Known about the structure:
The chain is of the alpha+beta class. It has helices spanning 2-7, 11-38, 44-55, 62-80, 83-102, 113-133, 141-152, 157-175, 177-197, 213-223, 255-265, and strands at 203-210, 229-235, 242-251, 270-276. It has a 4-stranded antiparallel β-sheet, covered by helices on one side.
Amino acid sequence: MLIKLGKKLNHHYYHQIMGATLYAFAVAIALNYFWIPGHIYSSGFNGLAQLIDTLTHGHFPVAWGIASANLPLLILAWLMLSKRFAIFTAMAVGLSAVFVPLFQTQTVLTTDPLMCAIFGGGLNGMAVGTALRCGLGTGGLDVIGMIAKQRYRTKVGSVNLAFNAMIMVGAGLTYGWQYALYSIIGVVVSAHFIDVFYTHQQQIQEMIITNKPEMMCEHIQQKMRRGVTIIDSAHGGYTGKDKSVLLTVVTQHELNDLREAIQEVDPTAFYSESKVEHTGGRFYEPEP
């Protein structure tokens, strides 16, 4: 597989390499300049690595914790998801384990726990969201979530919540409960930035009213891999003319392409968009 990747290292692979590098760099900066000075814990396996480092009084450093905790999940990703996804996720995890000690510093920008929680969480969320957008995971709960979503069509929100609650309890027992609350703020900020940067998982339902249904449907299917449902015999209340209603669901990432397709076929078409909480059936999910 590695030889094959070396021969076919196209633009897409460079994109993933840059995503892995950016993730590792941002996590190292967040940890060394914000989380450690502010006594803030991250979420997921990075937070677990911090907790292990604290409980062992530095005898098992964060970098070792990141690498060792993620190893079993990288094996699962290789077996259950895809080899390419596992390789680039391993690259992101490995680079973060290298960059964390590499960027250790005595420079303290601020010890204010609120500022450290906000800026550390923001950097982490930007890093994770960018990595996911580039088609690679960041290890830990990301891999568990992707396996559950792809193989079992379910989410692991309760597992994530319980795991992160354990980390926050560890922060409270170690530094005091006020730092656990600050760490929760950091987790919330991180989650918000992940949603901002990673738009593939956000689904949008598009309703299109047009008098060119067949042409519109064909153009959308050519431009993107999405099915369209046509509802005929709609009637315009103002114009009195017969129309067709088209329904499709796309991701937030695909929304601009869909709008372009609509404008190219029928610039006068009316369309509206609404967020989708859940889809079932055969909604296309690209391979990781």
